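Sample intake sheet
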Amino acid sequence: MEAVDTLVEQLTGAWGSWGPNMTPNADRVAFISDRHGVPQLWVQDVVLHGPVPHPTPITLSSDPVIAVRWSADASWLACSVALDGGVRTQVWVVRPDGTDARLVGGAGDEHAVLGPWTRSGQRVVVTVPSNTAGEPSHAYLVEPGTGVRELLAVGELINVLDLSIEERLVILRDGRRGEEFCVVLDRVGDRVHPLMPHTGTGATDVALLRPAPADDAAPMVAYLVTEVGLPRRQLVRMPLGPDAWRGESSVLAARDDAELEELDSDDAGQLLLLLWNVGGRSELELLDTRDGVRSVIAGMPGLVASSAVLSRNGDTVMVSVEGPERPRELWHVDTATHRWTPATHVPGPIGPALVTPTLETFTSADGLRLSGWLYQSPSDSGAAVLYLHGGPEDQERPGFNPQHQALVAAGITVFAPNIRGSSGYGRTFVHADNRHGRFAAFQDVEAAARFLVEAGLADPSRIAVSGRSYGGYLTLAALAFSSGTFAAGVDVCGMSDLTTFYRDTEPWIAAAAVSKYGDPVADRELLERISPMSKVDAITAPLLVAHGELDTNVPIGEAHQIVVALRERGREVEYLELSGEGHVYRRRENMTTLISRTVRFLSTHLS
């Protein structure tokens, strides 16, 4: 195992760069990087010819930075900081040279969400969800130099997506998970109007407000990423005018084989940047709103892209790109030539050759076709582990995953399926596990294990199941409701009892989760039936439970109660508590500890 431990250190030490945001003239970029062990803010020049410059770190606190945005005049940066590494965030502002750093949201027990800057001037949106169940969220315009707040909007689960340049119109997103909808708020007269019908047939969760093309009858256009009444997330155009006038919506861009994942635009609204999710792989595309011409940006130097941004003048794209063998790195794209240029340094080669996964398909018990990414170990030992992603609306993709690579190096094949409820495969698929559909999701996990056996990839007595967050919950459910199928399990920050999860999680998380799992009062019987704690007697396989000490999304009590219950029954269970971590583990030393412990645990119980 010494070689595997060395590889784990190399993998977790392979820092990345992501979340870019550029100055208005695109000559500088701010981004997030964990090159010093914890995600922090970095700033550097954009150099298109010659060596990549070294970035300058800006320290705000010891907590991880998770997002950054540049003000319209380039004089301020606004950052989202994960307080104590947990789910609650603070909003900081700082000058690009690192001076005048101050907290403008998230003091005390306040949770503050970073929104956009105004498109002119120097104010940033900060949204504050209530800490009291049933109370609304409040969105403010905040002056960075003084911290003075002006109330912008009030709503149940609102987030501000965009503002018009004169700050009269505001696009708000509201609604529970998978049922999000967008409205436009006209601040003159305080009138709110829906942008798409709120029919319950899908979500609208991304929107931009831009000037309409010169020959358009409407002065403004809202560009929406929506699945309302549609089979997949597509780009829809909604003309807007004075006195709450709305034109007819129309689909601008759609694909039968992909979902629209991200959207950005230049200030003039003449060029749109589209990031498509094609079965887990990424494709970038530009759309000229004046003539409707779409052009694919070919040659992406990796399989998965994220946080794609377009400069305000439309000349430049900055995007984070990764693949199975390379961590996230920033690349620059010229929109005229489609030329790719590296924008950040990357670490050197990592250990031995890493595995590139293959996309495999299989069928669940009810005939639903599913797929997953297979990281096949060259050792052909017969040991395998299912890895179940979180969400459940997340998606397993062929990005850089140190744990998958470390397990393969230890002789364990990894199969990471996208069972029903995963995003990227259309509206029907992502909602197929809601409420009572949870039982079918359990069957999908069993089907993934059968696939490994029938394909000759695993010994049926040497298959483990693992996952984090919702995937950790599914791991516990698989051990409880499919007892005997799996030889071991690894639950990372999963829910063990959905009734206690609702009781103890953050109020805004509980309110948003009702659409996925059910209402904690009206659906209590269902929640009890699908909770692993209700069948804890059936869990007999060895189990490793890991949880962050500061997790308030899935509170740490979810781990404690399953560990105590299993120990009382004489079961074999190990517990790992990660200090300084919330729901998402961002500190390198903790990731190294977790992966090393996971590899050792599974190697022992699958031997």
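Comment: The chain has ten helices and 36 strands. The chain has a mean pLDDT of 94.
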